[in-house]
Batch of 4 targets.
Target 1
Amino acid sequence: MPYELYYWDGLQGRGEFVRLALEEAGAEYMDVARQSDGTAAMMKLLKSKSAPYIPFAPPFLKDGDLIVSHVANILFYLGPKLDLAPEDEPLRFIANGLQLTITDFVAEVHDTHHPLSTNLYFEDQKEAAKQRSADFIEHRIPKFMGYFERVLEQNPDGKKHAVGNRLSYVDLSLFQIIEGLHYAFPRATKRFGERYPALTALHDAVENRANIKKYLASDRRLDFNESGVFRHYPELDQDA
Amino acid sequence: MPYELYYWDGLQGRGEFVRLALEEAGAEYMDVARQSDGTAAMMKLLKSKSAPYIPFAPPFLKDGDLIVSHVANILFYLGPKLDLAPEDEPLRFIANGLQLTITDFVAEVHDTHHPLSTNLYFEDQKEAAKQRSADFIEHRIPKFMGYFERVLEQNPDGKKHAVGNRLSYVDLSLFQIIEGLHYAFPRATKRFGERYPALTALHDAVENRANIKKYLASDRRLDFNESGVFRHYPELDQDA
C-alpha cells in the first residue's frame, strides 16, 4: 500500500521535507490533499471526535493504520524504510537531533513574517516582522548556518554528508532550507556560497541527484510562494 | 555509568522535561551544569571545533560516547530504557508525535515574552509581547489544551494516559506544561480544571506519584522563575 502524505495543497511548506525523502527513494506515495476531496478527508481526520491518536496539525503520514505526525518524526519513521537513515542505531538519534534543529530553524523562518500571531495577516504585523527579520538575518541565519557548516566540517566520515558516509534525509532537508533561504532572502544570502562552502556543496550535490532532479522539474514540485514557510517579502530582506 | 544531563543552571527550562523522566524512573544521572565548572564543560563541548556531532543547544544528554540533543529526541531515546515508553513499537511514534506537539507549544510559550528577538530584553519588546500573549491566551492555549484533552478522551485504553494504558514520558511532560501555564498565567488558567478535566486529573495523578512527589519537594526541583520558559509577567496575563 502506498504511503499517504497529508498536507495542505498549494504550497511546499513543511510537507516538502517529507516529499523530498519519498521522491529521492522513489517510494510510492499519495499526496492526499492534492486529490479531489483530499483536503476534506484531511480535515475530517483532524477534527474527529472519536479516532485515537489524532495529529495536531499537518503534515502527517498514514502507513496502513498508523498515523505519524511531525516532520522529524515522519522522517525518523521513514528513514530506515527508505534507506535514508544511518545504519548505525546511535547515529539515528544524531540524525534526529539534527532534523529537530532544522525544525526549530523552520519555525524561526515562519516567525519572520508572523512574529505576533498566525491569526493576523502579514500586513497587520509588518512592523514587528521587519524587526524580527532584521534580527533573524543578523543573528539567527549565521548561528544556524554556522552550526550546520561545522557539523559537515566535523563529520568524522567527511564533509559531504551531515551524518555518516552516505546520504540521509538530513542532507535532503538541509538542501531544502538553503533553497528556501535563497528564495526568501536573496539579498541576505548573496554571499552564502563563500561563507558556507560545505553547505553549498551539499546543496548542489543534492540538487543534481537523478531522482531529485526529476522531481524538481516535475509539476509535483510546486514553486515557493507567499503561502509557504519561506516567503519573499522584499521589505523583510536586507544585505548581510 | 550515570546519564549526564547538560542544561543551564538556575532554571527549569527545557531540561525539566528530561529531569522529570529521570526522576520518575529513579535513574542515576548527573545534572552537569549544577556541578562546579559544569557550565564551562558544557560550553566547551558546544563550541568544540573538532568534536563530531556537536549539539546546537542545551539540553543534551550524554550516555557514554553518544550525545543526544533536543528534548523529544532525548525522551525517545530514554523512554524504553526508563520504562516510560509504550512497549508497542508503533505507539512509540505516537508518543514522539505528541511530545513534538508539546515542543511546539513550549516554543510558543517562550515567544509570548520574546516575540521579536531572544537577543533583546523583555522590557525592549514588551508591547509586542502583550499582543502575542493576548493572542496566545485567546487562541493558542485553547487550541493546544483542547487538543490534548481530546487525545486523552479518545485514547482507546482510557483517558488516564496520553498513550496506551500506562504512564509514559508524555504524561510527565503534560504535567509540566500545565504546571508552567498555571505559574505564568494564573488569570488565564483560572478555569482550567473545569475546561480540561481529563488533563487536570492527569496532572494531579502525576503530581502524586511517589518519585515525582519526592522530587518536587527536593532542592533539585528549582522554582519557576523569570529566566525559564514559563515566566510570570502580570502585564501579559489576562482573564479568559
Target 2
Amino acid sequence: MTSVAATRRSRITPEREAELYDAVLQLLREVGYDALTMDAVAAGTHSSKATLYRQWGSKPELVARALKHGRPGAARGVADTGSLRGDLRDAIVHAFDDCRIEQDAALMRGVGRAAHDNPELLRALRELLIEPSIADLRVMLDRAVRRGEIRSDNPALDLVPHMLVGALISRELIDGHAATQDFLATYLDAVVLPALRA
Amino acid sequence: MTSVAATRRSRITPEREAELYDAVLQLLREVGYDALTMDAVAAGTHSSKATLYRQWGSKPELVARALKHGRPGAARGVADTGSLRGDLRDAIVHAFDDCRIEQDAALMRGVGRAAHDNPELLRALRELLIEPSIADLRVMLDRAVRRGEIRSDNPALDLVPHMLVGALISRELIDGHAATQDFLATYLDAVVLPALRA
C-alpha cells in the first residue's frame, strides 16, 4: 500500500484530502456504498472525476481510505500504558466513541455487506483497516509477552482479533443493540484477559 | 411461537412439511432471500400460494422455519456427556458439518443481510434460530455449574453466546475462510473454557 497511491495522493494537500474523505463518509451514511457514485463525490467536493480516479484509482480504494481516515485514533499509534489491560482499554476508548457507535456500526454494516459481493472492496478494507488493526494488536501482545504478562506459547494469542471482532459483531445479533465501550471493557476483563491468563 | 402456527402446520404431514422446507432451502441457495418468491415455492412444490400462506403466514416465517428444519441436529436436544467440554464439543460436531459449512455460511450470510432490512425476518430468525440455540447453551452451562465445573458468578457465563457466534463470524472476516469444526474446537479450548475457568 505504498508507492503508487502515496505518490498519487501527494498531489493534494492533507487538508483537501481530509475534506474529501469527510464528504465520502457523509455520502456513505446518506446513500450507502452501492448508491454512492464518483459523480456524486466529484459534485459534492467540487472536484473532477478525473482527479478522483487519478488520486485514488477506484471507488473501493477511495471508500476504504475514507473509512481509515474516519477511524477515531487511527493514526495515533499504540500507547504503552505499562500493562496489557491498560493498553487494550486505551485502544477501546480511542477506537469507539459511544455517541457515534450506532452510526458507525450502521455504516460499517452497509460497507461490509457491499464487500461480500465486491472482492476489490474487500481487499481494500482488509489492507487498509483490518490488517493494520491486527498489526496494532500484535504490537500490544508482543509487548505483554516481553513484560512477562502472557506466555508466548498461549494458544489464545492468535485468537485475540477473533475475540474482539467477534464481541463487536455478535453483540448486535444476540442482544439487538450495538456494542458500547462498557460492553467491550467487560468482555476484555471476563473473556480476553482470562483466556490469555494475563 | 406456539398455537396458531402449530395448528396451521398440523394440516400437512411431517413428510410433506420436510419436503417443502428442503425446496425452500434449495431455492434460497439458488436465488437468495430477496429473489425467492412464494410463487416459486408454490410452483417448485406443487402447492398453492394460498396453502403456503395458510400454513406459514408469511415468507419470513416460512424461511425461518425452513432454516430451523435444515439445522443439522436441531431437534436432538442437548446431550449430557458428563463434562462441559464434552457437551460443547458434541454440540459443535452436530451443528457443523465441514462439508456443508461453506455452503451454509453463504446461505446464512445472505439471509442475515436480508434481515437487516426486514424486521419481520429478523424477529423470526431470532425466535426460531438464535434464541433456541442460546437456550440450549444455557442448559449446558447450568449443568456445568451444578457439576461444580464453573462458578455461578463467573462473569463470562453470560458471554458464551457472544464468544461462539463471534468465533463463527469473525473467522471469515479475519482469515478469509469459514470456521471449521477444528477451528471451533481450538477456540473452545483456548478461549471459551479458560474464560469460564472450566
Target 3
Amino acid sequence: MRIAIPRELQPGENRVPVTPDVAKKLVRMGAELLVEASMGVGAGFTDAEYTEAGATIVADRKELFSSADLLLRLNKPSVDEIELMQRGCIHISYLDPFNERELIDAFKAAGVTSISMEMIPRTTRSQKMDALSSQANLAGYVMVMKAANHLPRIFPMMMTPAGTLKPANVFVIGAGVAGLQAIATAKRLGAKVTAFDTRPVVAEQVQSLGAKFLEIDLGETGETAGGYAKELTPEQVEIQRQAQKDIIAKSDVVITTAQVFGRKPPVLVTQDMIEGMQPGSVIVDMAAETGGNVEGSRPGDVVEWCGVTIIGTGNWASEVARDASQMYSSNLFNLVEDNWCEEKKAFEVNFEDDILPGCIITHDGEVTNETIKNIMEGEAQS
Amino acid sequence: MRIAIPRELQPGENRVPVTPDVAKKLVRMGAELLVEASMGVGAGFTDAEYTEAGATIVADRKELFSSADLLLRLNKPSVDEIELMQRGCIHISYLDPFNERELIDAFKAAGVTSISMEMIPRTTRSQKMDALSSQANLAGYVMVMKAANHLPRIFPMMMTPAGTLKPANVFVIGAGVAGLQAIATAKRLGAKVTAFDTRPVVAEQVQSLGAKFLEIDLGETGETAGGYAKELTPEQVEIQRQAQKDIIAKSDVVITTAQVFGRKPPVLVTQDMIEGMQPGSVIVDMAAETGGNVEGSRPGDVVEWCGVTIIGTGNWASEVARDASQMYSSNLFNLVEDNWCEEKKAFEVNFEDDILPGCIITHDGEVTNETIKNIMEGEAQS
C-alpha cells in the first residue's frame, strides 16, 4: 500500500502528521512511504531523516495526491486536493465534519474514504488514537505559558528580603483535558488556581491537582457519552456568568476552555467582566478560532481591552510542534496499525470494527456516518 | 524634603521606581512628593493612585528636576538632566559607575550627590535594599518563561496513552541569584536541570533545588567578598568551554547568567557549540546587553543560528514590571528610610554609615567612592 504524507499548508502550522520515527514503523509494516519534500521542516525534521527511515521524497505534490492509496495528514484538505485523489483512496485527518459540508460532498463525489480524527471515540481502547485529547493536553500547557509571558507579574509566591510577592490568581473555566493540564501547569508554576466546569463530576479531579473548584448551582447539567459538557440553557449560562463575575475580577489570569462537541462554544466572559479586571490581567480564549468564549477575542491574535490582554492565538499545540507532532503521529500510527492487514500489507476499512466505522465520514461514494448523515439530511429538508 | 519621581524614558522600560504604596509611606514620613504625570503607566499605576497616596502630579519635567532635593529613579540620568539639578541634590538610581565616566563628571560638576544602586553591598543588613538581587531573581524566572515560549517542546515529562514525552533538558551556566531562580523555575515546570558555576561553594545550593551540578576541575577559583565569581584565566575559560560542550549539545535549553562584577562578561557559548545543538533548541543570554555570554546573541533581540533560537532580550525584570516595580520600589524605600532623619524630615548623607558611603559615587563636587576614584585616576595616568 502506498502511503503519502503531503506537507501541511495551513498558515502557522508547524506540526507534522508523521515523524521520522513513525515513518520507520510504517515502512517496517510493509508500506511504501512517500513524503513530500520539506514536509517535516516546521517541526525541525529534515528530508534526510525520512529517507533514512525508508521513505521516498517526492517533489511533485500533485503526483503525491494522485498516486496515494492512503493519505495521512493533520489538517483538512482543499476541494482541489480531493479531486486529485483516486477512487478508493483513504484520507485520514482532522475534518471538522459538522461544519465542512462542501468537503464531505467532494469526498463523496470522488469516492474517497474520509476518516475524521475528531470522531475517534473516548473509550479506553481508542485512547491511544485520540488526537483531540493529545493535542488539547499540550494546548493546556501552552496557554499557561502564553499567559505567563504576557502577565506583568510572576506566578509563584516569592518571599524576599524586600517583601513578599503574592502568587498569581488563575481561574480556569472548563476542566476537560486542556483545562486540567492548564490547572496542573499553573499549579506547578506556583499560582493559586480556581476552576469551574458545568460537570460536577470533575470537581474531584480539579481538587486532586491542588486547585479550588468553584461551586455554582446550575440545576441539572451533565455530560455526553463522549465526556463533553452538555449544552446549557440560556438561563443556566446567565447564572454561570454572574457567579463567575466576582472571581474573574480578582483573577490575574483567566483561561477559558469551554467547548461543546459539534457546536459553537458559549460566550462566558463578557465585556463588562473584562472591564472589571485589573489592568495588566490576561485572558486566554482557547476557543477564539471557533467562535470564542470571550467577548472581543480575535482569532489568531493578541488584543488589549481596557488594559486587559486577550490572547486568541489558536492552534496552541503547534507552538510546541515537536512534541505535538510526536503525539499526533503516534495517534495516527496507532489507528493505522489497528486496521492494518499483515497479509495484504494494507489498511483495511472494516465496518465491523468497534472504533473505525464511527470515524468514517464517507466511503465508496456515500456518507456513511449516521450523525453527519442525519444533520445533512435535516438541513436539506429545512 | 522634596522628593521627585520622574518618568523613566529608556525604551522598553515598564518598571517604575516608586509604586503608590511606597509613595504613601514616603508621604507619611514627612516628604513632599512630586510625581511626573503618567510616571506609573508602564506598570499599570494611574496618576490618581499617586494623588491618593498624597503625591502631587507635575507635568513639567524640567521643573521636577530643578526643584528636587532628592530624585528616586531606576535608570541612569542623561547629562542634560544632571545639569538641571540643584547643587546638593541627591540622585539615587542604577548608575553603571564602572563605565559611565561622563555622567560621573557631570554629577561632580553639578555638585550632586549620586548614589548607585549597584553598589549596595551584599551584607545581611543591606539585603532589603539590594535591587540587583531583587531584579536578578525576577530575571531568572522571566528567562525560563521566555525559553519555554520559544521551545517547540514542553518542559515536563508527560506520560500519555500515545506514549511518553521526555522532560526537557535545561543547562544553566552561573548559579548566582538569577541562575538559582532559573534553576528553581525550570525544575518547577518539570525539566531536567544541570547547572555549572565556577564557585564550587554553590554546588550544594544547586543540588538542594533538585538540579545536577556539573563538576569541572578548573584548578583554583573563588568568589569576591561581594559574592561574585572571580574572573578566570583564559586557560580556565577554555577548560570550562570544553567541559560544557557535550552537555550543551544534549540540552534543549541553555541559560547563561555568568557575570563578573564591574567587567565584561565572559563568552562561554561559542558558535561551534551552538552548531552542535539540535534545531529548535533555545539559548537565553542574560548578559547580551553588556557584551554577552553567547557568540552571536543580539542585545534586545531574538535571533536564529542554524535553527537554534538565541534570546538576548535584556531588561528581563521589566517583563514582569508590576512585581519588579514592587521589589525595586521597596529596595529604594528601605534605603531612604535607613537614612531618614525624623527631625529634619530629610535624607541625611552620613559618611559614618556602614552601607551608604560605599554607594555614594560623587558628593559635594568630588568623586568620593574609592574604587571608582582609583579607576578614574588610573585611566587618567595611562
Target 4
Amino acid sequence: MTTQQLYEQIQQKKSFLSVGLDVDLTKIPQHLLATEDPIFEFNKAIIDATHDLCVAYKPNTAFFEAYGLKGWHSLEKTIQYLNQKHPEQFTIADAKRGDIGNTSAMYAKAFLQDMDFDSITVAPYMGKDSVEPFLAVKDKFTILLALTSNEGAFDFQTKKVDSVELYKTVLETSKTWKNSENLMYVVGATKAEYFTEIRKIIPDSFILVPGVGAQGGSLREVCKYGMNDKVGLLVNSSRAIIYASSGEDFAEKAREEALKVQKEMEEILNK
Amino acid sequence: MTTQQLYEQIQQKKSFLSVGLDVDLTKIPQHLLATEDPIFEFNKAIIDATHDLCVAYKPNTAFFEAYGLKGWHSLEKTIQYLNQKHPEQFTIADAKRGDIGNTSAMYAKAFLQDMDFDSITVAPYMGKDSVEPFLAVKDKFTILLALTSNEGAFDFQTKKVDSVELYKTVLETSKTWKNSENLMYVVGATKAEYFTEIRKIIPDSFILVPGVGAQGGSLREVCKYGMNDKVGLLVNSSRAIIYASSGEDFAEKAREEALKVQKEMEEILNK
C-alpha cells in the first residue's frame, strides 16, 4: 500500500482511526473461551463490526506471544484474515522490534514479508543499521518510535542531546537513512503540544498516534497540532473500543465506540 | 537462578561463555532439513555438544519468528529442553522487547513466566514504566541495552544528553528503578574501551557482551576493562561457534570452537 492509497481510504471513510488488537483472555467475553481459538474469534468479530469505520488494524504482538504457540497461531490467522477479507486495511504489527542488522532482517522477513503486514513499529535505540533492514522492504513501512505515550518517555526521549531533545535527534537522524521515504513515526497522543515542533522536522510523514482513549490523550488536540494537508495521522484506540463491553454484545458495542470516534474524525476532516 | 549461583557455575566450569542460538535454515547442515524440526534438532545437538563449556544459552527470538508458527514451536522446545536437561544453564531470551506498562507485562509473562527463561533483553527507549514490569518478576533478570555492538550505537547511544552520553544516562537512571537489583546490561565487545567508564556506574552488575567472534570484538580487551571481582561478564558468541562447520560434523566443530573460547577464558580467570 502507498501513502496515497492510505490517504484516499481516509477521505473515503472520513476516518483515520486505527483499531488496536490487544487481546487479553481475561477481558474478552466468557462465551468465546469455549471456541477453539478465542483470540482469533474475538479479532474476527471486532474486525467485521468495525472495518468500515477505520483504516488500520494494529495487532500488538505481546498479547499474542503471551499465549505462546496458540497466540502466535492466532496472530497469523488474524493477519491472514485481514489480508484476505479486508485488503484495503493498513496493517500494523505493533512489535517494537530492533536489533543488529542480520537480526532486524529476520524480523523484517517475519512480519513484512511472510506475514505480509504493511508496517511494523521499531525502536530506534540501536540506530541506523538496526532500522535499515526494515526500510529495505519495498512497499512496506517502518514506524519508528519517536515520542511515546507513556510516562517513561520523559526518562530519555525528552532529554537534550547536544542541546536538542533526543526524540528530535531521532527524527532528524532517521531522515538520513536509506529508504527513509518508508518511515512513519510513533508520537503519543498524550504529548499533543509536541506535535508543532515535530511537524517542523517531518512535515509530510504519517504519524501513528497511540494514547487516545484509555491513556487519556485528546483527539482534537492531536489534530490541531499534528494534522498535515494529507491528514498524516493514524490515531489508534485499543482498549476503549475492543473492551467497550465484556458481554455477548461486545462487537456491537465496539462498533458504537468506533463510530463515535469516526464521527468526531469526520467533523474534524470537514473543517 | 541467583547471580551467586551463576558465579559459582562460572568458577566450576572456568567459563563465562554464552552460546547464541541464531538458527538460520540456510546455514545449518543439509541433512537436518529432512527432520521434523530442524531448528530444534540443530539446537539440541549444539547444546549437547557444548553445555559443559558454557554457562548460558541465548536464543535470538528473531531467528525463530522468521519461521512463523514452526519457529515459535522450536523456540518453546529449545527452552523446555534447556530447563529440563540443563537447568544449571542461565537462559537468555534475546528479544529486545519494551513497550508501555501493560504490554511489557505481557512480554514478561511470555518469556520469564510461561517459557521460564532466566532473563530477557530489553530496549530502554521507552523508559522506566516500560522496563519495570520485567523487573517485577521475582528471581529473573532484565538485561537492558546500554551500549550495543553495532555501528548504529553511535547514532544515539554515545550522544551527549545534558553533557553525559545517553548510554551512561540509561545506566544511571536504571539504577533508580524499582527492583533494579534484577538488572543486567548489554555492552558490545566492539566497544571494549568504554568498559572502564561503565564499571564506574555499575561496578557489580553482570554485563552480557555480544560482538566477540563474527563481529570482531576482543575477549582479552573486554576482560581487561570489564571484569569485576565476581567476573560479572557473560561473553556471547553465536555464529563463530554454531556455524563452525556446515557438515555432519557441525556439533563436534562447534564444541572445538567453544573449547577454544573456554580455554582462553580459563587462562584469564587463572590470572
